[in-house]
Predict the structure.
Amino acid sequence: MSNPTRINPVYRRRLLMHKVGITLSFLAMAVGLTVLIWILTTLLIKGMGGLSFDLISQNTPAPGSDGGGLLNAMVGSLMMVGIATLISTPVGILAGIYLAEYGAQSKLAQITRFVTDIMLSAPSIVIGLFVYAIYVAQVKHFSGWAGTLALSLIAVPVVVRTTDNMLRLVPNSLLEAAFALGAPRWKVATFVRLRAVRAGVMTGALLALARMAGETAPLLFTALNNQFFSADMNAPLANLPVVIYQFAMSPYDNWRSLAWGGALLVTITVLGLNILSRTVFNQKIHN
């Protein structure tokens, strides 16, 4: 039996293009993994030196002083991210349910989906400037509420898109069975359709939380920073991303060491949330 590559030049050309494509894809993956490992290794080496009990028990130090930590920045970040999660999760889930249930017949749903896609791709600094213009410039002071609003606007599109996509995966036969039993549409949407994909929806909420945890640009225009410990959401509030940015650019070795330690904490938090969303909840979906 003759070799097909000798008698079929089209097959031979396609096989060559396939090999070239696989090789280029492998090289691109290798470059990406190399850069990622390089970044993580550098972060671990320099960040481990900044980890200590003082890092999570003391406030940010004054310029030129020794010691100190990032307690006030961590508390400020937890407050803003936590409140933003409480705001964005129900809003995003309800909007996603609306898009999945009425998106095929409603012009408003099509506009909402288009705006959501735009917000997903918009740079976070643009959202920070938007909140600065409509809120900070009006009240004439930075605040934790402004930072919470900016983070909420970043998280809502992620939850909306995830909820919409997950609800579309529910089989029509399941919905038809619920309707056949006489269940109203709102019950089918919440108690049947949403319950079937609740693990995927929670995954979207965790991914939105992970994205908020590392945002710096919008907080520079909204919450700004505070060197002292404060739980007043109506005043400038310390937060990890901004403190890391400011300390990393400073001429003080102590501040730079704290910046590396804070960066490692943020990376571990974001990595943990991503692993949690892609393992625990995905296993529940398959089960």
Q: What stands out?
A: The radius of gyration is 24 Å. Residues 9-48 form the longest helix (40 residues).
